[in-house]
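User: Hey, my collaborator sent me this sequence without any context and asked if I could get a structure. I don't really work with proteins. Can you help?
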Amino acid sequence: MNEFHQSRNPFRRVKYIPPTKDIISNAFERSSAARAKTRKRQTREEKIATIEKERIVVLATNMVEKLDSIVNQFPWINDIHPFYIELCDLIGNIDRIRKILGRIDGISNQIREIERGQLIKLNQTDHPIEMAKIRKEAGGRFVSLVRKAQGDVKFLIKTIMKLKSVPDFNTAYPTIVVAGAPNVGKSSLVVAISSGTPEIGEYPFTTKQIVFGHRDFGFIKTQIVDTPGLLDRPFNERNLIERQSIASIRYIADIIVFMFDASKDAAITPKEQLNLLEDISKEFRDTPTIRVLNKIDIMSENQILKAKEAFSSQFQISLKKADDLGDLVTKLDEIVNETIKTKEKFKEFYKVSISDEFLPSKEEEDYDYNL
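Assistant: No problem. I've predicted the 3D structure and written it out in structure-token form, which is a compact way to encode the shape of the chain:
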């Protein structure tokens, strides 16, 4: 199951990216505190040389370790899920990030080269003043190189903070995306059909917080998500970044529940709601869509019939009445199970789930068949 745990937000594994000023100051603190082991028989000059070498090595090593940690912590772009690749490109521009990581790696290698050169110089002199000069020269060159990365490191820190705020979707699990006009009841539906308390988190390019829940359909854990600010208004009103972020949702959306509102409280007209559904259907061509009419508790029977016909809604619900959700949940259960069986991306997950389903229960394991 490790494969599925690794399918979560890979950028949350980045613990800390230190600013360049911290890299420099910490390295010099450790270098100043470095104490090299000297031998009794060494001359004064030899002891000084040993200490100066140690200070150069400690300085270089600390800077290189911090720079390498930045490069090594950042997830390999080719190894992460397309959903997170798309978001990474939108937030930070993947090509730019690759170049930055390459430059930082290059600086790390240059520091090691300078370190080797300065150590050779130390071996070629026995004058304490000259030794101190060589060590100071090494430090100055190291600092100059690290400072060159200042802008790049600031960009990575800013980018990773945004990427870490993306909800921790597990891309190995099926996902139900709830869509519809503003104030149609999307978040309330997520809360109503989720097991436990849904998470509230940030999502790039939206001004509202995302509601993100889970539900077990049989043995299958499913994610249910409302993306406020994305799938709630006409696509022709979108800027390029918003359209690209909508495109990224294609990688996780396995089922769409589109909610309609025909009540007097509706935020947009029935025609605008149908146009929004058409936009979404074009963007998510191969994704099963369930049409749900909400707020029937504040509508007359005649209004419900007309709205059902106008929207071709399959389910008519009131989120104030839990009993109204039974048929919808049953349908979602059916589609989730079918999706797991037929979608290529769930092939391995389905095998694992099936094998788990037929494992003996605790009672069966304890049963003594020799009785």
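In plain terms: The domain at 175-355 is CATH 3.40.50.300 (Rossmann fold). You can pass these tokens on to your collaborator as they are.
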